[in-house]
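Let us work through a complete example step by step.
Step 1: write down the sequence.
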Amino acid sequence: MSDQQGGFGLSGDQPTGPNTGPTMANPQDSYYNRYSQASGEGVSAPQQPKPGRGRGKIVAGLAAALAVVIAAAAIFAVSRGGSDDDAAARRSASVDTAPVTATTWTNPTQAAGARALQPGWQSQTASTYANGQFDVPAEGWKLASSDTYSGYANPETNTTITAVAPARYGEGFCAAKKDQEAAWVALMNIGKRDPTDAGPDIAQRFADTLAAKKDGTKAPQGKLSPAKQVKVNQGTLPALEYTITTDIGDPNACGKGKKYEIRTVTFSTGGESAQLVTFRLLGVSKELPAADLDKIIATFRPAS
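Step 2: predict the structure and record it as tokens.
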């Protein structure tokens, strides 16, 4: 895996790749928009202004791997805008701000700033780069800056897919590669795409890229699950979850013989969509329990 800054996966000031293409209009009224209107909660996802060219400076170079070193499916992270000191300050502010509990809210769909829903957790957003907000425990998790892009690249086909504002779990679990993490969670920029379209599409694209081999073939994959309806934002907002598992095309020592589980969780409200994408390395000493991941998914909500 490689961390990359620069032109790879970028065009001008905007990230490119399958996750940042034109948005797709829903051919009929979305169930999710109907739910939002009927609930009276008044959720309105913020518009996502494009960062100006003055902020589009790439600030980091190739760095350490995110998940597994694979020649055909390399992982990278891209930071845009601000200095390393700025990013550190943002991370510190996210962790140090005192969390609020659900009981202090007058409307559970509107958070009081980018703060976690419960003590001992930290909250992550993607600023203007993608809609949505989620929380992870402070212990065992590290937050990247809100403008860090992480994903996988297939050098054989020159295709990439990325997510933004990752939170990483279990870094250092593998002695062969100290910066290897056991799981990560991030946000996708899907614009106005319907969850029934973006959910399975993004899950399959990540799986295909992870499974890519140097010889152009693909490692075995599980079957993409049917849509599962879940509730996010403290149980107030319906979302669709899709899951797929895949072998790693060209694994390193940390991923050899292991599989990745990939989930996408997607909702639409207020005319915008938001998507959380999760990655779990299965069969490792620091495997993220599925029940813990479910708790993280339940915190997914419109960005405050």
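Step 3: interpret the result. Confidence is low (pLDDT under 50) at residues 1-113.
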